[in-house]
């Protein structure tokens, strides 16, 4: 175990640092919400969206996460893999559009052996909220001050997000101008992450792009164009969790995607290839990967980093007797809905899941973030790596209490990640590649616990 891994574990256990001024952040977002007619303060409507508590992570673990993402990207390109996962996908997801899909989210637990990939999301929320939180970051010691000084600016990060969308557009439409972007969901102003929709709209507008927040049910097709209230839409930033546009409310969106009337990102094809939880059965099975002719190095990486995953099928009693070693998830679920820890599940709930479409993943408990001996607070944590085209863009943590990730725990929510090195790196200068800088920022310390390392 390296020095950085040891220190990260110790800091997460003992450090009392507070790295973000959450009230100031809430106040800043209130101004954005107020411009959209929302009068309720964020502190009342979303009291646990952000945590002021930093999470420490060894850089070696962040690099392992990038290796996992790259290995999955390589496997996803294999003809045999794509044939298998697309054969069970809905028809709308089988054809590959030119766009790749924005905001992939790879969720990891960190255990004694390193990062373990728990889930892949192709519609991961929170990136812009975590970028906005950086405006209110605070340093609790000199090493943290150096870390914050060397981070990419909020403006640079926001520009990289817009560049990602423009890359999607150019892949699909070449040099044609993009005029209007629609951020689309059902009843968007009622969604929990509506503040992020407003941030996206603001970020696009600051770079000269017309951005609308649109209810999917209000979309229409007029003269071979996707429209909203008479305005033509060029690009859809899709926030719907109806991943295959199967619901009647999304019939227009489904037709527009199938007919390529607008660039839709993220899209059904990306979900089928990456996010369907059944895919983890393949990705965690070395024998399946070898049969698909995956590279030996990729097989080794995935075998070490993805808990064994199986389809829930066969004898109820066999699964029941072994239930304590498994975590059960619906194949097409999201946001921890319908998930069960085997050691906590009731016999009635177990019967329901056996009749459903579930996978079982070897139970890999999350690591802990404690608020030090003075408070005694304990939070579970996971680390989300936002990625585009196989490259890590941004790391963020989620702190929570209870069985699954949530935004209901006082003191929990999205939390910043600080990376620790075994040896202090030199301070970088110039405009380095954003993705590489995000995966390798400078080293912070911890109030009262830095040891001078």
Describe the structure.
- The protein is globular.
- The longest helix has 20 residues, at 154-173.
- The chain is built from 18 helices and 18 strands.
- Helices cover 37% and strands 21% of the residues.
- It folds into two domains: 3-307 and 364-438, no CATH class; 308-363, Dna Ligase, domain 1 (2-Layer Sandwich), CATH 3.30.1490.
- Strands 1, 2, 3, 15, 16, 17 and 18 form a seven-stranded mixed sheet that branches. The protein has a four-stranded parallel sheet with strand order 5-4-9-10, covered by helices on one side. Strands 11-14-12-13 form a four-stranded antiparallel sheet.
- The two termini are 16 Å apart.
How is the topology of this model organized?
Layout: H1 3-14, H2 22-35, H3 42-45, E1 55-58, H4 59-76, H5 79-87, E2 104-111, E3 114-121, H6 127-133, H7 142-150, H8 154-173, E4 180-185, H9 194-206, E5 210-215, E6 219-221, E7 226-228, E8 231-232, E9 235-238, H10 251-258, E10 263-265, H11 268-275, H12 279-283, H13 286-291, H14 296-305, E11 309-311, H15 316-321, E12 326-330, E13 340-341, H16 347-354, E14 358-362, E15 367-370, H17 372-375, E16 378-388, E17 391-400, E18 413-420, H18 434-438
Parallel strand pairs: 1-18, 4-5, 4-9, 9-10
Antiparallel strand pairs: 2-3, 2-16, 6-7, 7-8, 11-14, 12-13, 12-14, 15-16, 16-17, 17-18
């Amino acid at each position: 175990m390296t020095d950085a891994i040891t220190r990260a574990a110790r800091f997460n256990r003992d450090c009392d640092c507070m790295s973000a001024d959450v009230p100031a952040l809430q106040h800043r977002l209130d101004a954005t919400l107020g411009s959209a007619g929302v009068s309720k303060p964020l502190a009342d409507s979303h009291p646990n969206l952000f945590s002021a508590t930093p999470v420490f992570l060894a850089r070696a673990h962040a690099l392992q996460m990038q290796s996992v993402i790259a290995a999955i990207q390589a496997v996803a390109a294999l003809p045999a893999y794509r044939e298998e996962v697309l054969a069970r996908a809905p028809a709308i997801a089988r054809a590959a559009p030119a766009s790749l899909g924005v905001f992939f989210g790879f969720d990891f637990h960190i255990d004694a052996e390193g990062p373990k990939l728990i889930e892949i999301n192709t519609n991961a929320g929170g990136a812009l909220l975590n970028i906005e939180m950086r405006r209110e970051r605070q340093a609790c010691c000199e090493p943290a001050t150096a870390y914050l000084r060397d981070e990419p600016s909020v403006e640079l990060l926001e520009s990289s997000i817009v560049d990602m969308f423009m890359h999607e557009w150019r892949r699909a439409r070449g040099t044609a101008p993009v005029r209007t972007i629609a951020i689309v969901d059902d009843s968007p102003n009622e969604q929990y992450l509506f503040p992020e929709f407003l941030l996206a709209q603001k970020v696009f507008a600051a770079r000269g792009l017309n951005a609308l927040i649109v209810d999917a049910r209000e979309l229409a097709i007029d003269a071979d164009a996707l429209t909203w209230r008479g305005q033509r839409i060029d690009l859809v930033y899709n926030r719907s969790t109806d991943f295959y546009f199967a619901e009647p409310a999304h019939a227009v969106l489904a037709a527009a995607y199938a007919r390529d009337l607008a660039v839709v990102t993220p899209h059904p094809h990306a979900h089928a290839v990456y996010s369907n939880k059944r895919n983890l059965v393949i990705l965690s099975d070395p024998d399946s990967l070898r049969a698909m002719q995956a590279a030996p190095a990729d097989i080794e990486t995935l075998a070490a980093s993805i808990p064994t995953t199986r389809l829930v099928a066969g004898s109820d009693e066999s699964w029941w007797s072994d239930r304590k070693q498994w975590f059960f998830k619906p194949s097409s679920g999201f946001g921890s809905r319908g998930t069960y820890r085997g050691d906590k599940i009731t016999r009635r709930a177990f019967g329901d899941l056996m009749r459903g479409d579930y996978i079982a993943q070897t139970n890999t408990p999350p690591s802990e973030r404690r608020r030090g001996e003075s408070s005694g607070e304990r939070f579970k944590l996971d680390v989300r790596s936002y990625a585009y085209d196989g490259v890590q863009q941004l790391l963020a943590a989620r702190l929570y209490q209870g069985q699954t990730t949530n935004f209901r725990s006082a003191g929990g929510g999205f939390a910043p990640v600080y990376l620790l090195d075994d040896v202090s790196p030199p301070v970088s200068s110039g405009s380095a590649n954003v993705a590489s800088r995000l995966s390798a920022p400078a080293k912070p310390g911890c109030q009262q616990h830095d040891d001078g390392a």
